[in-house]
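USER: Please consider what follows.
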Amino acid sequence: MFGSKKKSLIEPMDAHNQALLDNVHPSDWKNPKPAKSYNMVVIGAGSAGLITAAAAAGLGAKVALIEKALLGGDCLNSGCVPSKLLIRAGKAAKNVEKSQFFGIESELKNIDFPLVMERVRRIRSEISHHDSAERFSKLGIDVFIGEAKFENESTVTVGKTKLNFKKACIATGASPRHMPIDGLEKSDILTNENIFNLVEQPESMAIVGGGPIGCELAQAFARLGTRVYLLEKNNSFLPREDPDAAKILLSSLKEDGVEVITNTTIFSGKKSKENNTYKLFYSTGAEEELTLEVDKILMAIGRTANVDNLDLEKAGVEFSKHGVTVNDNLQTSNPNIFAAGDVCLKHKFTHAADFAARIVVQNALFFGRKKLSVLTIPWATYTDPEVAHVGIYGHQSEAEGVEVDTYTKHFSDVDRAILESETSGFVRVHTKKGSDKILGATIVGPHAGDQISEISLAMATNAGLAKISNVIHPYPTQSEAIRQVGDMYNKTRLSPFLKKTLSTLLRFRR
């Protein structure tokens, strides 16, 4: 029902992948007879589309959900789920290596890469029922598998079937961005869409792009035994993150055997017909003619919104290369059509898509005026250590002329981190100058993705550092570092004059 290009995204066709497809793209699926009109038609069944459809149907709306490829979208099939499964396998291997630091003698004798990838496919298939066509059909949603196109401002077609709507949501997501390499075909280069199809471990791999996806997969593959080269065009990877965070992660990547090459410009490539390897010809700021030979190349330079082949012009929906254009209420240039998720958001995260979908349901169906700009959106890069952030950066505040006070607590001074031998990292919080109002934070550490939520909650509820310092945190925990940052703020409130006054008062009370 979907073409060979889409079929190639799910390989090998073992029992696990067959179970996945049975859930998210069943071959025997029969599209329902369309209703006369729908309260909401949702195009795209990734995170944003599934949540929009389920929430709207749960509130009593008549909903149609259209997906041309795989329900569950990028997150389930080629993003969050399989990547974190691979990362966990790499962490297990690393734990064996590190056990000697705890007085435990062990040796990493073998890594069964095919078994690692079989586990990725198995667990992905096991949780795929949450996103299945059958489940959403049972929620009262008309699920259509096929390619959606706008016929006019209030009608979508799926093949020859017409769906009339009062409101619609475009949630078609995004795809890996490709950088053409002269001498290589597009099919020669892996992306996150097919990297998890591997069943044999590559001895070597070049990863082009030092963003979150590139860093996560570089470390995971290196820990599993692949020789990894991470090529980044800028002078540092994770360029938008706190520079100190990138430095700590650089040290960790090098420890795991990743060779990080910055300031790279790739000129061309060549595929060897003899041994099926690839050569990349590139330069750096220091050297102009360099060659790298690897078994696989992974492109990880970002994502491009899926706006093609929707006939958006016929619906009066404006778009650009950056995606569908929306206002702060996630409304497109057609007031009856909204958008959510990677197709329109700057922050292309599953959790951002989730909350954008909630805004769409309220605004489209219940005359709401919810705004995207009021959301506090954290994010994390799931390397080891993890790098998590919310709000403003220190370098961003300088560029924008926002005056801040910055408080940093290093995990090397936190008891639990010392006990766990996890001292690389810090909690850094930026507050409005002269205030405890939190404007942003970065956490670098093994549990940073979990810990950043405490800062996000404080920002969303206008709880400042002073209030955090008054919240009792269990001892010993690494999250205690957040409370200690609050203590650092409180110490600034004790001015020399106040301290002198208190000393005088206490002297008279002796």
Remarks:
- The longest helix spans residues 80-98.
- The mean pLDDT is 94.
- The radius of gyration is 25 Å.
- The first strand starts at residue 38 and ends at 43.
